[in-house]
Design goal:
This protein is mostly helical. Helices cover 47% and strands 0% of the residues. 31% of the residues are buried.
């Protein structure tokens, strides 16, 4: 047995035992974790750009997080997870208070090859508040807050004809050679954000935000200003379906 298999086997056993212990204890409600209302603010600041939660939540750049507590990792249907987190799910990773807290604190410490480009939330109290908010949408779905936690900030308003433009994927693949000098095709996000499997509309909005100077990154602003609307749509079509 290789060292890797021994390590992942031990992790799976530990996580499985942890899940069993958690299930044997009384259910922990959001009020036992932290302040869910403060957690709602953390959600908007930390999570809402990539994830949705609450009534009508759907997969976005990241999977939706409704009923995430107790769910096996990489279990949301039709979401293109990274190979790393799929492997962790197969090895027995479940999302519990303990594992979610560890992942939010530092995603790369739990899943080294994750595509989630997030530096982590270091303050334990802030994480408890955030988890309290997320928990409202797991074990008490009938009491989901009526506000719209799935809403995200709109960076730039674009006319419908721009958002509905169908990009030429082959042209996007050609243009992507400049993008992939920094962004990795396999979606690894070690210091550079992943753009692999981004929904096309989100990609288009982000690039137009750079082009208009609303997103503050000089290199990306320079690149975006060289691209036409058709170029951006083509890149969006390519990265949404990249299969390298």
């Amino acid at each position: 047995m290789t060292a890797y298999r021994r390590a992942t086997g031990a992790l799976a056993l530990a996580l499985g035992l942890g899940l069993g212990a958690a299930l044997a204890q009384p259910t922990i409600g959001a009020e036992d974790l932290g302040d869910a209302e403060k957690g709602r603010a953390h959600w908007q600041d930390e999570c809402a750009d990539c994830h949705q939660i609450g009534p009508g939540a759907a997969n976005d750049i990241g999977p939706h997080l409704n009923r995430v507590f107790g769910r096996r990792a990489a279990a949301v249907a039709d979401f293109p997870y990274s190979d790393s987190i799929r492997r962790m799910g197969r090895d027995g990773l479940y999302w519990t208070l303990r594992t979610l807290d560890a992942y939010i604190e530092n995603p790369y410490s739990l899943v080294s090859g994750t595509r989630m480009d997030y530096p982590g939330l270091t303050d334990a109290e802030d994480r408890a508040d955030l988890l309290a908010f997320i928990r409202l949408h797991s074990d008490r779905p009938s009491d989901m807050p009526e506000a719209a936690p799935t809403a995200r900030r709109v960076e730039v308003d674009l006319p419908p004809e721009v958002l509905e433009m169908r990009g030429d994927r082959e042209w996007g693949e050609y243009l992507a050679s400049e993008c992939t000098t920094c962004h990795q095709r396999d979606g690894a996000a070690s210091g550079i954000p992943s753009i692999t499997f981004w929904p096309e509309e989100r990609f288009v909005v982000a690039m137009h935000a750079y082009r208009e100077g609303l997103r503050p990154h000089q290199v990306m602003q320079t690149i975006a200003r060289r691209l036409t609307d058709e170029d951006i749509a083509a890149l969006a079509a390519y990265f949404a379906t990249i299969d390298d």
